């Protein structure tokens, strides 16, 4: 058995939170029909999500690493970094398991925007914005242009099935053997993970998710059935040239929406 923790609270709004609809050219364009990153290793790490419900904090740490990988370098994010951020963004008290209650993605993203994500030698500050969970074209644009999409999903007990070696099913899908357990979305709980790439856009086409320190395959129909919220994180200082990142007025709109949100929550 491999230890894997959940910890993403149900999706909710946080006042006038930043949205990506203001990035009109970026979000409205037709997303790439496929995004193949097989030759790029995003090097995801567990970051404590095997013993803590800190998937929201681990997800941001792995988003930093995924963004760096696109530029052919890497940034060290440690378990200690993720746990400290988990504490600052959720109220978790290290060493007190009663306070390990997971986190809401919008709260965690707000903390990252306001206070940054602290690493050993630097603190990184993302811009962020939300998109409707059913806007798959927008989610694909986020993945292609901002390195990965930051998602909240409702996992089923069948998704948590392991083989004799403690490995998850090679592909998460909505069609599962009865022996894998309850297939009802949410029957296991909420989880934060990243969408990294996709082989196509049809229901049965495969996507790559970054979660629990590994790359997990799933179908689009699985993702559509499980997703409850979707966000884009923009580490502008880390994004490499050559990807389909926002430009010009779209960046200005994202900056303005984040500044307005901070002013309203300070």
H and E order: HHHHEEEHEEEEEHEH
Number of strands: 9
Instruction: Please give the alpha-carbon distance between the first and last residues.
Output: 44 Å
Given as residue ranges, the uncertain stretches (5+ residues, pLDDT < 50) are none
Shape: globular
Radius of gyration: 17 Å
Biggest sheet details: 7 strands, mixed
- How much of the sequence lies in strands comes to 15-25%
Secondary-structure-based class equals alpha+beta
Mean pLDDT score = 95
Helix fraction by DSSP (H/I, runs of at least 4): 25-40%
Structure annotation, total helices: 7
Strand order of the largest sheet: 3-9-4-6-7-8-5
Protein name: Peptidoglycan-binding protein
Organism: Komagataeibacter oboediens
Short account of what is shown:
Helix content is 30%, strand content 18%.
List the helices and strands and how they pair.
Layout: H1 24-28, H2 55-70, H3 79-90, H4 105-115, E1 117-118, E2 123-124, E3 127-131, H5 136-145, E4 149-155, E5 171-172, E6 189-198, E7 206-211, E8 214-219, H6 220-226, E9 227-234, H7 248-265
Parallel strand pairs: 5-8
Antiparallel strand pairs: 1-2, 3-9, 4-6, 4-9, 6-7, 7-8
Protein name: Peptidoglycan-binding protein
Organism: Komagataeibacter oboediens
């Amino acid at each position: 058995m491999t230890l894997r923790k959940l910890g993403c609270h149900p999706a909710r709004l946080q006042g006038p939170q930043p949205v990506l609809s203001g990035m009109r050219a970026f979000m409205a364009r037709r997303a790439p029909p496929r995004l193949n990153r097989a030759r790029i290793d995003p090097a995801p790490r567990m970051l404590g999500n095997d013993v803590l419900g800190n998937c929201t904090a681990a997800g941001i740490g792995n988003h930093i690493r995924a963004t760096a990988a696109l530029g052919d370098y890497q940034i060290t994010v440690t378990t200690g970094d993720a746990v400290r951020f988990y504490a600052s963004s959720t109220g978790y008290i290290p060493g007190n398991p009663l306070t390990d209650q997971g986190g809401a993605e919008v709260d965690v993203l707000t903390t990252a925007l306001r206070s940054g994500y602290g690493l050993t030698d630097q603190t990184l500050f993302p811009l962020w914005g939300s998109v409707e969970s059913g806007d798959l074209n927008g989610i694909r644009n986020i993945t292609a242009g901002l390195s990965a999409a930051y998602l909240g999903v409702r996992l089923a007990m069948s998704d948590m099935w392991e083989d004799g070696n403690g490995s998850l099913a090679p592909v998460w899908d909505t069609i599962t053997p009865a022996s894998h357990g309850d297939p009802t979305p949410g029957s296991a709980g909420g989880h934060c993970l990243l969408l990294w790439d996709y082989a196509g856009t049809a229901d049965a086409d495969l996507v790559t998710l970054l979660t629990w320190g590994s790359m997990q395959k799933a179908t689009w129909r699985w993702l559509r059935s499980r997703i409850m919220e979707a966000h884009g994180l923009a580490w502008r200082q880390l994004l490499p040239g050559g990807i389909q990142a926002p430009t010009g007025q779209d960046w200005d709109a994202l900056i303005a929406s984040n500044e307005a949100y901070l002013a309203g929550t300070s």
